[in-house]
Structures are given as C-alpha cells and as structure tokens.
Design a protein that fits this description.
Elements lengths: L3 H12 L2 E2 H19 L8 E4 L2 E3 L1 H7 L4 E2 L13 H14 L4 H9 L2 H7 L11 E2 L1 H10 L7
Antiparallel strand pairs: 1-4, 2-3, 2-5
Helix pairs in contact: 1-2, 1-4, 2-4, 2-5, 2-7
Length: 149
C-alpha cells in the first residue's frame, strides 16, 4: 500500500508548486475519493480535524515550517503508486487544483466529516481528533469529491 508521502509527492508531480495547505487538502480529497469509489484507502495514515481543515500529521511533519512546497521537496518515486491509484489522484487534481488552499479548507469546513470530528469546538480552537476513514467513506459516497459531468 502507498503512503501519504507517496500520494502527496504525486500530487506535487502533477500540479507543481503549491501551498502546504493546498497539498494537505488535495491529499485528503484523494483519500476520500478512493474510499468512496474504490472502498479502500490510498494509505493508512489518518487525518485529524485541525483548525484549517483535515491535516495528516505524518505529512505535516514532512513540510513543517514551509508555506510553499515544490516537487523537488518531496520527489515522486516511480512505481510507488498503481495505475488505479494515480488515476484517482489525477481525477481529484483535475477537479480541485484550480482552488486555493484556503478555498479547499473552507470546503472541508462545510462538510460533516471535519465538523463532526470537531464537535462543539469553536473554529479557532485546536483539535487532534482523528477523522475516521469509515466516516469519510460514508460521507463522500453520498457527496462525491469529483462531480462527474
């Protein structure tokens, strides 16, 4: 199975330089798309309901202290993802890469997986609650990440 690093590296490979917030959100939505449409995760690492939306701590630790990240910072390793996994990620990138990290963060704030994991916390309060993969899968099966036209 791929790792969150593999998925993020492929996102950078496909989309080039971006903010770390945007990379986190595209990685989250790639995981959601895989869970909803393939019924399996792309990677085992979890996302937590941080203030600015879902964040994977393992990925955060790879870019901590940076605002922007580029492909050379997290090089894609050929063979680390299957054709099917790359297709899922490409579909998400093609659909969502036009949005900024802040826009994607706002979108996650309107969706129940993040909101429910945070419970009654104010938007500015810290939170480390895991957003369960089963919750992500159930929500995005009903509310697709990528709208097919």
């Amino acid at each position: 199975m791929a790792t969150v690093r593999d998925v993020a590296a492929y996102i950078l490979h496909e989309c080039n330089v971006m903010t770390t917030m945007k990379m986190q959100k595209l990685t989250f939505y790639s995981q959601a798309e895989s869970l909803a449409n393939r019924q399996i995760p792309l990677f085992t690492e979890d996302f937590r309901a941080w203030r600015n939306g879902p964040v994977c701590v393992e990925l955060f630790n790879l870019h901590k202290g940076r605002f922007l990240i580029e492909p050379k910072d997290l090089p894609y390793r050929e063979g680390s993802l299957s054709d099917e996994e790359r297709t899922v990620i490409k579909r998400v990138c093609e659909s969502l890469s036009k949005f900024s990290g802040n826009q994607l963060s706002d979108r996650t704030h309107s969706e129940s997986p993040w909101k429910d994991a945070r419970g009654e916390l104010r938007p500015d309060e810290p939170c480390a609650t895991v957003i369960e993969k089963s919750v992500i899968q159930q929500y995005y099966m009903k509310h697709p990440v990528v709208q097919l036209t």
